[in-house]
Design a protein that fits this description.
This protein has 332 residues and is an alpha/beta fold. It contains 11 helices and 12 strands. The strands form 2 sheets. It has a 7-stranded parallel sheet, sandwiched between helices. It has a 5-stranded parallel sheet with strand order 2-1-3-4-5. It binds 1,4-dihydronicotinamide adenine dinucleotide. 1,4-dihydronicotinamide adenine dinucleotide binds next to helix 4 and helix 6. Belongs to the D-isomer specific 2-hydroxyacid dehydrogenase family.
């Protein structure tokens, strides 16, 4: 099988080349360009294409891929809200993903953001580099004894629950389905979790139902001086309402690995670009906000798992024996 690999970063190529040794029937050509309407035609002659979470794979792109003969879209990510699945279904393109490559990688990043905003590490790092050893503005807050509210207790949320328990926190959660492995977690309805938590961490996928689930009304229900962390998807939070909440001194800290409008920035070096009217600039103007670049997944262990599962998905597709949890569309 020949796979055309879009939006290649150095770390992708290193880990895929390394794991490919165990999959002799698979060839990969790496492209730096992202998959979109203009670049989809490069897939002519390839049975499969591989894309990542920030590509916009709408109907036009899917149609061009199908016209080029591609039968398989390998998402090297857990999320797939960027793919028009109905269009893929119509055009007989199977979409496979990597459902749980390393939940701990993302959960540990969520806790890293929590600790960073909680102890103002982002400010302290810069101050000390400038020989400013003043402690003003660095007062933190203990996590031990506080309540963590975890929204979504699938693989990543469950890992975050365990980490929060390790910090001596009471762990509360909201999910449509209770995770039976989490016997130390108190499940509550969404409003109650908002009202009682000192730390709220989002770990549910973005769906049509929960778009902007964190908005003016839900922010108003939160405790004053809450910490809000989002490593899930930007559009779970209404950014304008978040900014209004930050300005109203609602939050002790906000840590975002994902944010609305991140598309153009994610994984790109834009240091020479003047970012006009961008939300990230406004968010970064606040001393209690940290933004990272959708890097929750980026650990060595996760990259190895992503490469192996993606290559295994390709091999299984050839043999028509796909694991159900990896399947996002149902073509076989
Ligand atoms: P999962 O599928 O194991 O768990 C998601 C959980 O959310 C499920 O238990 C589901 O019942 C629950 N859920 C669905 N809708 C909900 C709602 N409206 N309210 C509360 N709970 C709801 O997914 P996993 O692997 O834990 O990933 C979660 C999300 O993390 C992904 O969808 C993706 O958006 C994000 N992610 C972020 C990464 C990063 O680098 N920052 C990397 C990987 C995933």
């Amino acid at each position: 099988m020949k796979i055309l690999f879009y939006d290649t970063k150095k770390y992708d190529q290193v880990s895929f080349e390394h794991e490919r040794k165990d999959f002799p029937g698979i060839e990969i050509d790496f492209l730096e360009t992202d998959l979109n309407r203009k670049t989809a035609k490069l897939a002519a002659g390839y049975e499969a294409v591989c894309a990542f979470v920030n590509s916009r794979i709408g109907e036009d792109t899917v149609n061009i891929l199908a016209d080029c003969g591609a039968e398989l879209l390998l998402m090297r990510s857990a999320g797939f809200n960027n793919v028009d699945l109905a269009a893929a279904e119509r055009r007989n393109i199977t979409v496979l993903r990597v459902p749980g490559y390393s939940p701990e990688a993302v959960a540990e990043h969520a806790m890293a953001l929590t600790l960073a905003v909680c102890r103002r590490l982002h400010k302290s790092y810069i101050k000390v580099r400038e020989n400013n050893f003043s402690l003003v503005g660095l007062t933190g807050m203990n996590l031990c004894g506080k309540t963590a509210g975890i929204i979504g207790t699938g693989k990543i949320g469950a890992a975050m629950c365990r980490i929060c328990r390790g910090f001596g926190m009471k762990v509360m959660a909201y999910d449509c389905y209770e995770n039976p492995e989490l016997d130390f977690v108190e499940y509550r309805d969404f409003e109650q979790v908002l009202e009682e938590s000192d730390l709220i961490s989002l770990h549910c996928p973005l769906t049509d139902d929960n778009y902007h689930m964190i908005n003016r009304d839900t922010i108003a229900k939160m405790k004053d001086q809450v910490i809000l962390i989002n490593t899930s998807r930007g559009a779970l939070i209404d950014t304008e309402d978040l900014i209004a909440g930050i300005q109203a001194r609602k939050f002790f800290g906000v840590g975002l690995d994902v944010y609305e409008e991140e598309g153009k920035n994610v994984f790109e070096n834009r240091e020479d670009v003047i970012l006009e009217n961008c939300v990230v600039g406004r968010l970064l103007s606040f001393p209690n906000v940290i933004v990272t670049s959708h890097q929750g997944f980026l650990t060595r262990e996760a990259l190895t798992a992503i490469s192996r599962t993606t290559l295994q998905n390709a091999a299984d597709f050839q043999k028509h024996c796909i694991r159900e949890e990896n399947r996002v569309s149902n073509q076989l």
